[in-house]
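Hi P.,

Sorry for the delay on this. The queue was packed all week, but I finally got your sequence through. Input first:
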Amino acid sequence: MLTAGIQKRIELEHEPGAWVTVRMLGYRALEAAREARTARAIRRARDMGPELMASLPRGGGDGLVLETDPLEEYDLNILLQEGIVAWSYAEPVNAETIGSLDEATAKVVARALLPQAETETARGNGLPRSTRRSTA
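Then the structure:
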């Protein structure tokens, strides 16, 4: 599906009356957000040094599967910068004002931009998608 023009308004439950409109992100924006997050994790690991890295517990072997927050796979700033198109705040939407969102709001909005959220909303929770089959 093409993502151009698909938008969703998110009501901010923790801030009554406030809302943010986001656009559905295409694969390039999502890939950039994943790559930026991975690069940051690699830099942090390298900064820790090999001795400290070696002392960290390693996964596997015990059969435990840890649940992770899908948001942790993406760079929050890239998601927000690419996804926010409008909001109810008096200030205009731009890089500086997006960067001044509080953490709770930033995470609520970013979660709405994740691919899983996009899939769920495309199934009928707010995105204007046709359910008719194409005859082309």
